[in-house]
Amino acid sequence: MTQLNTAALSALGNDIAVPAYDRTAVSPGIVHFGVGGFHRAHQAMYLDSLMNDGKALDWGIVGVGVLPHDKRMADVLSAQDHLYTLVIKHPDGTLEPRVIGSIVDYLFAPDSAEAVLERLVDPATRIVSLTITEGGYHVNQVTGELDTSDAGLAADLEPGATPGSAFGFVVEALARRRAAGIPPFTVMSCDNIPGNGHVAKKMLAAFARLKDADLASHLENEVRFPNCMVDRITPVTTDGDRSALSSTFGVEDGWPVVCEPFTQWVLEDDFGGERPAYEEVGVQIVDDVEPYELMKLRLLNASHQALCYLGYLSGYRYAHEVSQDKLFIDFLLGYMTDEGSPTLPPVPGVDLDRYRHQLIERFANPEVKDTLARLCAESSDRIPKWLVPVIREQLAAGREIKRSALVVASWARYAEGVDEQGAPIEVVDRLRDKLVERAQLNRSDPLAFISDPDLFGDLAADERFVAQYTAALQSLHEIGARRTVESL
User: Fold this and answer.
1) Domain 290-487, second-level architecture
2) Which residues, at least 6 apart from 223, have a Cβ–Cβ distance to it below 8 Å?
3) CA-CA distance, 121 to 115, in Å (whole number)?
4) 2-286: which CATH architecture?
5) pTM of the model
6) Rounded average pLDDT over 273-279
């Protein structure tokens, strides 16, 4: 066995790709908040590809973790000289490993806040990128304004506070750069949010305004926030993934990343200064990202929600199991064709029918083993952004909503916390207690779950939606998930 680190690269043989560049020649240019599986399977991979071509060596990534559980990532990456293995899982069972070297450092912010700020203020840092999850932007789902109830944000707003949140670090660093006469960095959100760049700008400006109105104006006028759409299914790494890497390829990696073969990144060319030549490694650089991001959010992401609750309640535990079942294939294609797609603007260069069928093929990859539990998690940050807009547009146009209504009902049924066999369901959500409390009332008050204005606005007052939703919820209780889909 070979423990992954710099010294081991030359010993890995021909079965695993390693960086073709001298990592000692790589200098930092990007600071990234939220170094999880997706970032390492996506943005860091694209940059590594550029570096393998002898380019972008001044764009190394410095990762930053602000949450307590990020300490483990800091420890693992440090022990491996910030190297890790990306393993592509092909549907035929073939594993394609590759060592990624584009991350050159990782800072655990609770232990090194000033070091994080120094790196952010360094003129060499020209991009600050984010994968902080949908909930990390603190958007009130109804008003669209900044939700300041988060304890971390409140702490960062105290006079003289040392930053603790991503927002706190970004805003404090911009203030210091401005005071020092250093041009601002570009903020590049890579999260699954419609208009992620616009959202990041609005929320960070609102946060900055609570500290310094002049700084907020500087942020709004001088800092660039490109929108982008990112796509690659990246399930949580398991002990089985680690074992497969060591037994098949002889590599001991504390935290490899596994992913599907497909990858896509559509990026708006709106940077305040230099940027890596991403287009040379397959990134689509466009003037308007919105058509692509709506396609992804309302077809791929919303379809994940369409399969996860119903699939789980039907006894499945993995996305590929659901997506190989003709009943659910028809249901997903029906949702995408009749409800999701009609809400989309034209998407340049994309055949939507081919894209829809390609999504089913991707979901059905048995090697990825994406768990339904992962897809069911944090639904309060997902359904309102991915599916509720589809429902609203379909209602306004007088079009079909029956599948979307069933998906919402299946979320409500899942949130009851017990499956159809009486076994407990672990509901994972930042709003878990509120969701479960409302879901417990599903049988006595069928509107309880959708009466939360923070998640659904006024949908509970729409007679057509209510009729479809309550009928779906009743059916889930009376005949179960599978037979409900069959009856639909």
Assistant:
1) Orthogonal Bundle (1.10)
2) 174, 184, 185, 186, 187, 201, 272
3) 10
4) 3-Layer(aba) Sandwich (3.40)
5) 0.89
6) 97
